[in-house]
Amino acid sequence: MSASFPGARLTIDLGAIARNWRTLAALDPSSECAAVVKADAYGLGAAEVVPALRAAGARTFFVAHLSEARVVRAAAPDAVIYVLNGLPPGAADAFAALDARPVLGSTEEVLEWAAFRAATGAATEAALHLDTGMTRLGLTPDEARAVLSRPPFRPALVMSHLACADEPDRPETERQRALFAELSALAPDAPASLANSAGTLLGATSGGGLGFALRRPGVALYGSNPIVGRPAPLSPVVTLEAHVVQVREAEGGTAVGYGGAERLTRRSRLAILSLGYADGVFRAAGSADGAPGAVAAFNGAFCAYVGRISMDLIAIDVTALPDPPRRGEVVEILGPRVTVDDLARASGTIGYEVLTALGPRFARRHVGCGDGALFRSGI
Ligand SMILES: *Cc1c(COP(=O)(O)O)cnc(C)c1O
């Protein structure tokens, strides 16, 4: 523990991220494997994650905002950077200055970009986003046909986004693939891109032809499997360890935590951990009225959360442990025993939300980029 006594420490394994990228890339060698690093690389630190991915071989990166593109540009000067949330009004100059490519998702954006290029002669590239069934961003099929029949500039990429690929039995994915194949054929010179992480994993197992020229995995790089119930060849990336503040005993029938939501069924030993929902462990992962919540792990044994999760504290049951943790020791909240997807399931959410909620209070360190070097250490 450092002199600042953080409640918990988060370790991010850059080697595992690089390994996951190589694994996904190798699933379909005929398709480029890009990397989605929006939201600060899903909460894990784009400034550290991007160089690790670049060293592994990734050269195309996707972010949501121009501010995120700046971080990627600083970390990987030669990267190709696409900005998924498109072109805000009047922002074309800023995109060109950074050599960041907007993913144009409406006719309005296409026209503004075309006007900017015509007025300035800027050579900055852009992607076209085609909506094939998500109804979020992207030109409708009719708009896409209109724009692509007389394109005002040559797009560097045409892409669409899958809405249901995390559920392999859903028929929507094949409908989206077929529509995208038809629309993207109207821009035969532009590389095409459809698959997210789930599409990348599905395309590999089902021969579904989802790869196209470029794939855009995000969450799988960070060790979370988007397809529940179907094993994926991914390495865990994050380890979150919480310090034990105290260990205490309590009689059967005693109420634990806010609202007395959980009552002990026997004399128990509890370890009180120094993290809570303010750190990003969702309150929904607590236990109440005998309905189990999440588990932590200590020395290989699982320990159930007991009662509601507080802002800064969580109680776990260590009664069954022959050698329970002591004050100042650490317990695994996430890691090799408790995966991001396990905690997500216990919280009623998805791995994406668990990752992006990991808070700023932790001591953070990045390890394991080949030589095990620490990139930045808060510990
Ligand atoms: C976030 C996002 C991705 C990556 O999705 P994952 O499910 O994390 O792999 C790909 N494409 C678009 C358009 C996105 O918004």
From TrEMBL:
The active site is at K38 (proton acceptor), Y258 (proton acceptor). InterPro entries: Ala_racemase (IPR000821), Ala_racemase/Decarboxylase_C (IPR009006), Ala_racemase_C (IPR011079), Ala_racemase_N (IPR001608), Ala_racemase_pyridoxalP-BS (IPR020622), PLP-binding_barrel (IPR029066). Its cofactor is pyridoxal 5'-phosphate. Catalyzes the interconversion of L-alanine and D-alanine. May also act on other amino acids. Pfam families: Ala_racemase_C, Ala_racemase_N. This is Alanine racemase. It is an enzyme of class 5 (isomerase). It catalyses: L-alanine = D-alanine. The modification N6-(pyridoxal phosphate)lysine is found at K38. Belongs to the alanine racemase family. It comes from Methylopila jiangsuensis.
